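Q: Convert this sequence to structure tokens.
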Amino acid sequence: MKGNLDLRSLDLKSFIGGFLVALLVFGAFFLAKPQQEVSVVSTTSYLEIRDALKAKLMEEGKYRCCIKEPCSYCLEEGGCDCIDKIMEGRAPCGECIGEILEGNANPYLSDEQISRALSEVKEEM
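A:
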């Protein structure tokens, strides 16, 4: 009988020991601080950089957008010529298409110019 008590006691000790080891390992994993901190650019900083870049490109004549608030999509290409595309009857970038459909087109563009450019989008689909 005494052997059984020791075996149960040993199982309980093993369980508790294993549990404590697992707790320490997981605790160390989740509480460990990264060795190198990652700097995060805030949304405000991004928006400031984006707006400054748009303003610079507009001054240089390289950002000619077709919507009231110039798109950000074309920044990746280093300039925007969406208004030229519309005036030539070609589709602008995707962001401009969405904004135009929401009623945010440049007020100097005619409905005919916009319709002709957007009809090209339908043909491409």
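The chain has a mean pLDDT of 81.
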